[in-house]
Amino acid sequence: MAEVNRVKALFILNILLFFTFVGQLKAFEVIRDTELEQFTDDILKILLNSSDLEAEDINVYFIKSNQINAFVTGGKNIFINTELIIKAKDYREYTAVIAHELAHILGGHIFRTSEELENISNKAMPIYLLGLIGLITGASEAGFAGVMVGQAAVSDTFTYYSRTQEAAADQKAVSILCNSMVDASYLSSFLENLETTNSNTQKQSENYRSTHPLPRDRVSWIQLALRNNEKCDYDIDTELEKRFNLIKAKLFGFTHSFDETKAVYNSNNNQDLYANAVSSYLNGEHVQSTEKLKKLIKENNKNPYFKELIGEIYFVNQNYNEAIYFQTAAINNLNTENDIYMMMLGNYLLSTEETEKVKESIYYLKKSLLLNSKNSYSWYLLAKAYAFMNEISFANYATAERYFLIGERRLSYDFALKAIKGIEENTPEWYRTYDLIEILKKEVSTNTD
């Protein structure tokens, strides 16, 4: 009976949280950035080297926020606020935070809801460089609301951790870090720095302390765990630190004011140039931004992220050929295929409205969708490209896919019905369109009734 009551209580709590989340949606913005994602993925690979989990098993989402926070939700989802990354003084502090959140996942500490939030990747769609053009997403507000709430409501309820679980997670994090040859003392270093920051600038209800016990209490747990590890004072990885400082600089430029960025990043080293290139771009000073980026590219011609950003500046200024040139170069320099990069190049090619380039855009957009079929903006662009080429049935199919992803079932069904009439039978698109119709038929019929 006790178990039944517990399940009922969780069910009721889930409903209450859902409606709370819907009302708070507009306060949160989930961002995607390839440079940040790839760096974090490399950190995960280091930390999970001796685990049964793979980095691909963990979903990491970044929230644009000036509050310092990180938390775990149901399943294997880690949420990290951008300000936490900015405030980390060393890549090892950031790594330590990730190790702590991984410890909750590996230890089964996560608060399990009935939905598990396992479909969040359907909701968080790409954004051009950290929200620069606005959150490009096909997710419905209700769908986003269930997962985008890393602050007050979630902090106090959904991601609540017991004192025992926090202590266990800190000790496990130390073990993970030491086994991964990362100096685990940086976990306490981060917490000590956080304590100073919190006492000076932030309310307890709005920051990392609202989802975790007091940093000073946790430091003692960490010190105890460190004493139980014979060797954990590993040297810094200078390449990771260099990459991390560039990411911090970019994030700062995107999330802080132009004047503040100039004040903090006031020299001519690479990270300062990067921060000010981003900040100048946002401030409308595109010539100054491109000049800074060209200096960075001259110094490191293999860096894809500098080229991605300068390509986007050219795109915004409708210089599509230059945008295509730099985005192509960025793809060639990237060490892995990426759906955002393919999507962006597809968009640049499509924007030329030149027949041959639009044909090429279809290739890249389809490649983007092969890498991530949940990218609803790629489906939107693909529909637009097909319509330009007067391939209306395929445009209808792509539109049906997009509407299906964003939860517009009636519209998805209607466009699938249109598409099936003109697509050749037994092709992949025909089978998928047929599947959509069969999936949606009953649901649409029920809703109509």
Q: What does this entry look like structurally?
A:
Among the domains are: 2-227, no CATH class; 391-449, no CATH class. Helix 19 (392-405) packs antiparallel against helix 20 (409-420). A four-stranded mixed sheet has the order 1-2-4-3. It has helices at residues 2-24, 34-47, 82-87, 91-106, 141-145, 152-158, 163-179, 185-201, 215-227, 238-255, 258-264, 270-282, 286-299, 304-316, 320-333, 339-351, 355-371, 376-388, 392-405, 409-420, 428-448; strands spanning 30-31, 59-63, 70-73, 77-81. The chain has 21 helices and four strands. A hairpin with a 3-residue loop joins strand 3 (70-73) and strand 4 (77-81). It is mainly α and 449 residues long. It is globular, with a radius of gyration of 23 Å.
Shape: globular
* SS strand fraction: under 5%
Proportion of residues in helical segments: 55-70%
* Distance separating the two termini: 38 Å
Summarize model confidence as the mean pLDDT: 81
What Rg is obtained from the alpha carbons, in whole angstroms? Answer: 23 Å
Number of strands: 4
| Low-pLDDT stretches | 1-26, 111-161
**Widest sheet: strand order?**
1-2-4-3
Q: Largest sheet at a glance?
A: 4 strands, mixed
What's the layout of helices and strands?
Blueprint: H1 2-24, E1 30-31, H2 34-47, E2 59-63, E3 70-73, E4 77-81, H3 82-87, H4 91-106, H5 141-145, H6 152-158, H7 163-179, H8 185-201, H9 215-227, H10 238-255, H11 258-264, H12 270-282, H13 286-299, H14 304-316, H15 320-333, H16 339-351, H17 355-371, H18 376-388, H19 392-405, H20 409-420, H21 428-448
Parallel strand pairs: 2-4
Antiparallel strand pairs: 1-2, 3-4
